[in-house]
Design goal:
The chain is α/β, with parallel strands linked by helices and 337 residues long. It has helices spanning 15-25, 76-86, 103-110, 113-119, 126-134, 154-163, 195-202, 234-240, 260-270, 280-283, 298-311, 331-335, and strands at residues 2-7, 28-33, 41-45, 48-52, 65-68, 73-74, 92-94, 99-100, 167-171, 209-217, 219-222, 254-257, 274-278, 315-319, 327-329. Its cofactor is Mg(2+).
Length: 337
Amino acid sequence: MLDILVGGFYGDEGKGKVASYLGLKGGYTLAVRTGSINAGHTVNYQGRTWKIRVIPSAFVNPNVKLALGPGLLTSIEQLEKELEETNSKSRILIDPHVGIITKAEVLEEQRDEFLMKIIGSTGQGVGTAESKRVLRKLRLAKDFRELESVIGDVPETIIETIREGNSVIAEGTQGTYLSLFHGEYPFVTSRNTTAGGVLSEVGVGPKYVRDVIVVFKSFVSRVGEGYLEGELPREKAEEMGLVEKGTVTGRPRRVAPFNISLAKRAVRLNSATQVAITKLDAIFKQDKHVRDYSKLSAGSRNWIENIENELKVPVTLIGTGEDSLDMIDLRKEKLGE
């Protein structure tokens, strides 16, 4: 069956960490990526760090096959760079309908003062490329001879993988509240970033879905413009050790305390069946690298249980450090898996 992984806030929730952990421990045969090069996932595993934008984070398991869904956008340069860094060219499949961003789209977007100065675009050419796709002017992967050897039908591959009795994970991008349809328009991205959008981008219907895993961080962060409820002054964020920088832009992330109202709505918008919470150690520093729930501090356990009671969805994965395996896995206890 198909599991979907999405962000519950404004991106930067730690989806890369969760996806890499599930790639190692989730029993998946195939991992599919959606989104584009304007958002990055960070993976830390066995002393190495990767900052990737288009390759599925499950690449850390060499036995997992990888695919880019038809709704994805990438530049050939970024794709080749990541294939090299992750040593995954021998197991990648790229749908012929993947959109290709060229320097023309990047330059056009960077000249748009509204996007760059008012919205806070990352300037990667993604919005411009999406616009061209809608106008049927964008070039696709099938139009580039250098990609011929890795082109294939990704929706059909997903369906056949499932029919053979195997599991697939679809990795979403950014977060629920950057969705073109559900975020604070116009301070949003150029696609639907909810579970429904992920399904559309990978090209299969809802009957194949087993679980929707929504990822929240222990606090809220946001890059770029737009309202952020409860935003902390930078001095306070630094004092609390919550200062971060965006994976793609390097810009400081604005931060705020965990927002239960946003989390509840994200659970509903995505039809969440599981919740993952990352960076527990950012607010409960004594619990860094803990991998056994019973060894968490009482404060951490109470905090997790209160969130679970509010959301009415099981918290099955809890991140406590940078490494992919710094994870408390409660799927067996909560779901019987």
